[in-house]
């Protein structure tokens, strides 16, 4: 089998400036500063105020991909996945290293890449086909199929700058999947569409796999990767961490995830206006098969008399997939503020979760505005299911552990029901 993509010692360096942003100044401010700088120069003590830092998004990446391989590229945010795909798609240049690509590449990266915003959907289809080296006749043969799959018939002659992100993504995926490229590169953009179209895209990718096209697929959806790909590459902090079977790649990615519990004090996923501060979160599994999540929140004085704030918990699997969201307003709970603090707890009764480790994120919300949010700052583990049969079930079988039963039914007569 021929090698389609060969990457050798690939690195990408960015230079980050730490220059101080100067406030508005008058001539009265500037003149004394310039005199002081001149004196420093005379004394050979003048130093540049502007500092720079080198950051390697990728370091010494090497791999080969053969024709027809379906490779899932996984890693946490900042691992270098999107940078790698941009280099392979020739959107950005590497700092060092070599890349050899044999065949035409069709890329679907972040929404907004690859189309001319001023052109219509129809014109962009022909433009993308021409870029891939296809003739107008070849594009016409695929045209109806592209439009039908994208479900944008009514907006075909509208400039794509007026498309919603979902419409844009549907057309972009359809063009990338249907035009005659040898290599299909897809970043985590399927999350833009609704679940029905995501499933439609995954079905199309399965048919592309069967046709022998080489596919590079970046995703956080472990189930999609294991079903679509026959090889997995794990990136971690810009370096190649693993390259091998897709199931081993998945397990290694989950092992890395176990280390990614952020403290509340130093939470890289923190956000919000700052009018409130989440100070403590704990999750405890009770003996009566309940999960109690407690939260402590400091509230600014201007909000201490409000009773319409909302608390939200997000429950994620280890791979980052959202399993459930718990919003206080859904159960008509109004948190009370006592001495500028909220102390509340949420009880999950008989959680229908398969065995595994789960991560908790939390937010406090007021009138649609997030006051504070923290990501993956607490965890709990389900060691076994709680059904009466006590059957060991694997996480690969899905997140929900449903209570179900089978019953025998009367046989059908000659394949037909026996109704009159």
In words, what does this structure look like?
A six-stranded mixed sheet has the order 5-6-7-3-8-9, sandwiched between helices. Strands 13-12-15-16 form a four-stranded antiparallel sheet, with no helix packed on it. Strands 2-1-4 form a three-stranded antiparallel sheet, covered by helices on one side. It has eight helices and 16 strands. The termini are far apart. Helix 3 crosses helix 4 and helix 4 crosses helix 5. The radius of gyration is 27 Å and the shape is globular. The C terminus is likely disordered. By secondary structure, it is of the alpha/beta class.
State the main characteristics.
Immunoglobulin-like; 420 residues; four-stranded antiparallel β-sheet; 16 strands; six-stranded mixed β-sheet; 32% strand; disordered C terminus; 8 helices; alpha/beta; Rossmann fold; 2 domains
């Amino acid at each position: 089998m021929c090698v389609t993509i060969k990457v050798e010692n690939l690195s990408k360096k960015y230079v980050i400036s730490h220059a101080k942003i100067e406030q508005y100044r008058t001539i009265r401010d500037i003149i004394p500063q310039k005199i002081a700088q001149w004196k420093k120069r005379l004394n050979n003590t003048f130093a540049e105020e502007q500092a720079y830092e080198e950051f390697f998004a990728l370091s010494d990446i090497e791999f080969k991909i053969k024709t027809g391989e379906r490779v899932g590229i996984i890693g946490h945010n900042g691992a270098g996945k999107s940078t790698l795909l941009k280099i392979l798609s020739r959107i950005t240049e590497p700092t060092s290293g070599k890349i050899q690509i044999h065949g035409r590449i069709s890329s679907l990266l972040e929404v907004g890449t690859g189309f001319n915003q001023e052109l219509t959907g129809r014109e962009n289809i022909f433009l993308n086909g021409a870029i891939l080296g296809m003739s107008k006749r070849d594009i016409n043969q695929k045209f109806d199929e592209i439009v039908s799959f994208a479900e944008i018939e009514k907006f075909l002659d509208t400039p794509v700058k007026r498309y919603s992100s979902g419409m844009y993504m549907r057309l972009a995926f359809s063009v990338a999947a249907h035009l005659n490229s040898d290599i299909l590169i897809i970043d985590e953009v399927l999350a833009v569409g609704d679940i029905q179209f995501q499933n439609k895209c995954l079905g199309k990718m399965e048919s592309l796999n069967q046709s022998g096209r080489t596919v590079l697929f970046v995703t956080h959806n472990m189930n999609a990767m294991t079903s679509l790909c026959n090889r997995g590459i794990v990136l971690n902090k810009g370096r190649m961490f693993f390259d091998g079977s897709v199931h081993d790649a998945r397990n290694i990615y989950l092992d890395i995830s176990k280390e990614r519990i952020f403290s509340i004090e130093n939470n890289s996923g923190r956000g919000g206006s700052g009018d409130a501060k989440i100070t403590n979160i704990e999750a405890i599994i009770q003996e009566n098969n309940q999960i109690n999540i407690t939260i402590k929140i400091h509230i600014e004085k201007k909000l201490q008399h409000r009773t319409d704030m909302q608390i939200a918990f997000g429950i994620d699997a280890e791979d980052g997939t959202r399993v459930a969201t718990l919003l206080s307003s859904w159960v008509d709970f109004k948190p009370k503020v006592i001495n500028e603090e909220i102390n509340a707890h949420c009880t999950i009764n008989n959680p229908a979760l398969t065995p595994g480790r789960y991560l908790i994120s939390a937010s406090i919300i007021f009138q649609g505005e997030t006051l504070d949010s923290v990501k993956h700052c607490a965890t709990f583990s389900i060691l076994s299911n709680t059904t009466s049969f006590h059957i060991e079930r694997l996480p690969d079988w899905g997140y929900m552990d449903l209570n179900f039963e089978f019953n025998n039914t009367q046989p059908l007569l000659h394949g037909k029901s026996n109704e009159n």
